[in-house]
Amino acid sequence: MKVIGFSGSPRRDANTDRLVAHVLAGAQAAGAETEFFRIADLDIKGCISCYYCKSHDTCSIKDAMQGLYREIHAADAAVIGSPVYMGQMSGQTKTFIDRLLPLLNADFTTRLKKRPALALAFTQGQPDTGMFKPYMENTHQMLGFLGFNPKEIIVAGGTREKTDVDKQSDLVARARTLGAGLLLR
User: Fold this and answer.
1) DSSP letters of 51-73?
2) Which of 91, 99, 138, 172 is the most exposed place for a label (fewest CB within 10 A)?
3) For residue range 15-57, what is the model confidence (pLDDT) as tens digits?
4) DSSP string computed for 102-146
5) Rounded CA gap, 13 and 162, in Å?
């Protein structure tokens, strides 16, 4: 089993990276092979709405997404993490999500044969972890439409300093349990 993780935070080794890493650590402890990608470190351009992907199995833009498409197609599960900026995912994460359009055929059926299990991992300065729940649930549902098998959303609230996630032991334990649970599909 292979579980891949994506962090859409521009801050290296901060809360979002750490939360995704905890989910991946749980998957790895349960026997999965894992791989971690920092979206902000990759050359990923924005979608240009050319619809090349509707008649081809990939995107017309030749950048880091080409390799990520292969990783997603090969994965049994994925975790996508983002900090919450202005009530939504970060711009880096949004660019990545927009570029997932090639996962759909022209008739809106998925190209994902494995239908990888999916967890979303959000971090936010706002302590109320339910504050942006409708947005997060909508994102989870939309990724299900693309062909992922949505499982769970985990939210770390009150995360302002770079290592605040690690100070929330119950959250860390839950993230690791979530990672192991992704293998159960």
Assistant:
1) -GGGTSSS-SS-STHHHHHHHHH
2) 138
3) 999 999 999 999 999 999 999 999 999 999 999 999 999 999 8
4) GGB-TTS-B--SS--EEEEEEE-SSS-TTTTHHHHHHHHHHHHHH
5) 7
